[in-house]
Amino acid sequence: MNGTQVVITVLYSAAVIVFGVIAAVVIRSTSESRRGEVDEGRLSKLEGRWGVFVVGVLAVLLASTIVQVPYWDRADADENAQVVQVTAQQFGWGIQPATIEAGTPVEFRLASKDVQHGFAVYDGIKLIFQVQVPAVDQPEQRYVHTFEEAGTYDVLCLEFCGFQHHAMRGTLKVE
Description:
This protein has 175 residues and is an alpha+beta fold. It contains two helices and nine strands.
């Protein structure tokens, strides 16, 4: 488990525990044996405080995990970047050039001739990155990545695109 997964797991586990305790308190306080006269003014204030509390907790969760979102620090390619044009079409990839250099930024320019696809690059079973390829007539997606290690990387479609989706595979060679 990497650092991102640990942070998200800990924060969301804490949130589940806090909300579980709150739910137990609410259920206990609304039991039949404790019913009495309803103070609508007090309930209105409690609802307002509850709303502020929930929004606050969600804001803290967002603020503490947003920097862990993949591609948060995505930068535009510089003039030295290798450009790889990727064209997706049911049920294959057009990758030009299919061989690139390690250690140099690569700007992937992704487009589709038909439906939306998910461009995923794997090193064995390890996902390196994944980006969406927009459907036909949509602007191309651009993504910059630097491959540090040479090797042959698998390219898979992770967006269901039809009955032969499972066969939509390609390769990218890094030297």
